[in-house]
């Protein structure tokens, strides 16, 4: 089969790889119909995530058709069109029972924190992902959800990560009616978080980034105020000033390890790889939120230490909340939001690219070319 193949930092290509096989009676094999390149894939692509091994196939956002099932699979059948959450979850452990599917205790033997994730290095279990023609799906009675007949395929693939993560970013912020919410990062997750902030009652939503076309897109899609931090003397001072020197009620870090804006953080976290990423956005969020406020973190950082102002967290009495989105928990309400038109996920997609051109797709997305917001890869069998 054709599959994306990681060859080292900034080096991906399309290759022929062996078809996946049923390895456990709870497995399924899914023929991929759509997969996405995620902003967090760029952390892998740029070499920021430890134990990203040569030969791995990325891709934790995908939909497909069930081609084969293991002997114990009962809830899906061959021929079903499914969306597959990026969380690999057993459904039975103590954390899955709490609907913390991103923290499954059984799906990732490599860590005690995050659960398994498709195509996200061996720190997340070492599973190959969906930027391929076929993928093995463990715990097939838990993760995959049959796509409603009325749902557009582009909406369905964004329900595997972008929509749930953006929604949970707003949910973890504890947003209340009348709140001012600041989102750092105008990638697909940040834009979706800004859009979802209104659903929880926000009075004002501000997005901070530095890419002009992304800021323009956020203003139209969210809708929100959007500012280029390069035009601000200091983003924290700006947010304080525009909130009567109180600070935002909620700040959301939707950037993570690749944040720009601080030479020191860039050097330590992106160039020398001495910490789990450049924590510039998290710095700004902690310092710009009001006393007693909430910082919601969905930006991905590596597992090693990261330099943040923890003293300010304590002194200001802040609450920090972060996690991988529990996609399975959120899907019923989010599917309803799509059905009623409250959310329009597919409008985030700017590029449909043949899977064979995955290398160019990564370069365009990474270098922020051609107005790229969200890229969907289409395998050959889904273009017929």
Task: Describe the structure concisely for a colleague.
With 384 residues, this protein is of the alpha/beta class. 26% of the residues lie in helices and 23% in strands. Helix 4 packs across helix 5 and helix 4 packs across helix 11.
Descriptive notes:
The chain is an alpha/beta fold and 384 residues long. The chain has two domains: 2-161 and 326-382, Alpha-Beta Complex (Quinone Oxidoreductase, Chain A, domain 1); 162-322, NAD(P)-binding Rossmann-like Domain (Rossmann fold), CATH 3.40.50. Helix content is 26%, strand content 23%. The strands form four sheets. Strands 3, 4, 5, 8, 9, 16 and 17 form a seven-stranded mixed β-sheet that branches. It has a six-stranded parallel β-sheet with strand order 12-11-10-13-14-15, with helices on both faces. A two-stranded antiparallel sheet has the order 1-2. Helix 10 links the parallel strand 14 (289-297) and strand 15 (319-322). Helix 4 crosses helix 5 (188-197), helix 4 (162-172) packs across helix 11 and helix 7 runs parallel beside helix 9. The chain is globular. The chain starts with a strand and ends in a 6-residue tail after the last strand. The mean pLDDT is 96.
Number of domains: 2
According to CATH, the homologous superfamily of the largest domain is Medium-chain alcohol dehydrogenases, catalytic domain
Mean pLDDT: 96
Please state the overall shape, judged from the principal axes of the Cα atoms. Answer: globular
Spell the H/E element sequence: EEEHEEEHEEEHHEHEHEHEHHEHEHEHE
Q: Under the CATH scheme, which architecture of the largest domain would be assigned?
A: Alpha-Beta Complex
**Fraction of residues in H or I helices:** 25-40%
Which fold does the CATH topology of the largest domain refer to? Answer: Quinone Oxidoreductase, Chain A, domain 1
Class per helix and strand makeup: alpha/beta
Gyration radius (Cα, Å) is 20 Å
- Strand segment tally: 17
User: How far do the termini sit from each other?
Assistant: 16 Å
